[in-house]
Request: fold
Amino acid sequence: MHSEKPPRLGGRWLEWLLVLSVFFLVVQLFPRFCQFLFSLVDPRNWPRTAWFGVNLFVLLALVAVRFAPQLVADWRERKTRLTVEKTKHDKQQELKAEREALERMQQAKRRRIY
Reply:
């Protein structure tokens, strides 16, 4: 028997309603601010640079959606491969050091005079 968390009964909706109520309060207290916000959102008032920026953003977002998953997968594969290669190289270096130490010991045994 495992304990499960009780479901949040409308907690998210309550938070969103609170945010919405604060927004409407600000709109009622500052009507000029509301007009300013709506003028920013209205595309008829946008200059060409804003249109260019929005189109560039949408284009970059589409390119990211298309190519980002493959880039992330390639990056993870490369990282895994480099980790394996580094581990292999470290083990080879360790074996080489052990081999050299063994050869030095064998040479030292040959040089001993009994």
